[in-house]
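Figure S4 source data
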Amino acid sequence: MEQTVIEYFLNLIKIDSESKNEKATAEKLSNDLRAMGAEIKFDNAHEKVGGNVGNLYAFFPGKIEKTPLIFCAHMDTVKPGNGIKPQIKDDIIVSDGSTILGSDDKSGIAEIIWGIKALQESDYPYAPLELLFTISEEIGLLGAKNVDYSLLQGKIGYAMDGHEVGKIYIGAPSQKTMKFVVHGKESHAGIAPEKGINAIKVAADALAAMPSGRIDFETTCNVGLISGGKATNIVPNEVVVEAEARSHNSAKLENLVQRMIDAFQTAVTKYEVDGVQAKVEIEVQDEYQNFRLTDDDEAVILAKQAAKNLAIPYEGIIGGGGSDVNMFNKHGMKLAVGGTGMEHVHTVKEQIRCSDLELSARWVSEIITLYSEK
């Protein structure tokens, strides 16, 4: 096994693992974790999402009797994430500029493993640990949505998938996605445009009436994808609009989604030609559920004290995005998202400091230590 967390991270990010292609990363992790004394299991989540390996579970029995502490990270990366060539410039690790770096989320994986390894090398009597490395997080939390929760006994823990070391995300919104398929009536745009119903125009009418952007301090929505039409000389008879809405308040989210639906349903009533009425098909999908931890939750107390012990600035953050933690908390757990030090993620300018990799691994060790002593 590698000698430092930096070496471990560098070797991890050299393994191609864009979403649905995490098998090679999972094989390395399972071999390394077995060598550290963990029991390894895989589920069949990949069969449900079209990937090549399931979620990876690693169980360390620990040296004291206690409910296991959970640590999580995801194995997949966004695109372009193949053929990553890392470089170290002073204290900073970057790619060669043609790909992302992969610190999202292989920094979290490396820090979890190295935090445990440090305790093992010091022969510290730590509590039982449950590690969960998920697949396809970047394309809709698909691994977390298909976790076999019967395999997990732990109730609190951390997904190492945040940014600044020492800071944790203690809240995140719910998200719903919507797909609107508007049907008009096809016609020749030059000879008989009045015989057609332009589906793009109908959609534009709906979009003009629809709320968009930041609705209030805890609620947002966005239209992100529009497709339709065949040629400029054909009145288009179909357009597809895809949108999302998020809120920390469930009632606000339901109200916002209904307003977006109403905009389309109202728009189509305005367009009718020769007995043909414009219409819209609507699909609404629940992506994930909001969660909120408090200062009294044990995961928050441990993270805060661990940061204090290491002289790291601590902050509990209410986030605007979702993560695997949304799914875990939906199943009765209380997990926070821990910072790994990654910056400019999902871009070719992604980077992480060597010192942050080391510091976050120490933070993981300190959290385990505090949990074991409590």
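Figure S5 source data
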Amino acid sequence: MLDPSTQEKLEELAKRAIEFNKNHNIFQRKTKEEVFKKDIKECLEINSLINPKEKILDVGSGGGFPGLVIGITNPSSTIDLVESNQKKCYFLNQIRHDLSLTNIRTLNQRIEPNNKLGEYSLITARAFATIDKILELTKNNLCKSGRYILFKGTADKIKEELTPLNTNKFNYEIINQDNKEKERHLVVIKNSE
């Protein structure tokens, strides 16, 4: 159950996302209710897997899902939103500023292997790239005890994406998001060493 202040911020995010989308087309939603149901609600499911005071990297943040949702609902954690599209970064910064989300930082850049972002205890992504590509791009960013939590679609597609995963180096778990309309999963990947 969300406290009233958090609920209000999430509703403001949905409203502002639709307003911004009318002129800038950052995603495929038509109403505030649709954003809340298809984006915010799905992103809230990660919260049971987040520890207090995590240092989080959200790769390819887009319209802020899951990054802004995580930042709003986990104020004791710090989160860096990496987004290469300037238009989307403008939106992320507006929301961050207007909702006083001091635990969020927006980085307008491409994520590259051997980047200088530092290490994180949690790396997230939603609708960004294949699992293999995400791991390759962020290989220097996951701390030894850290993990990835990736938002993915069908179990068959996930299994296909996990094929190249080095299971001597990584353990994984696939969590069904129990979405009635569309098959969705969270994939949790940790170092096995």
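The CA atoms of residues 60 and 84 lie 7 Å apart. The mean pLDDT is 93.
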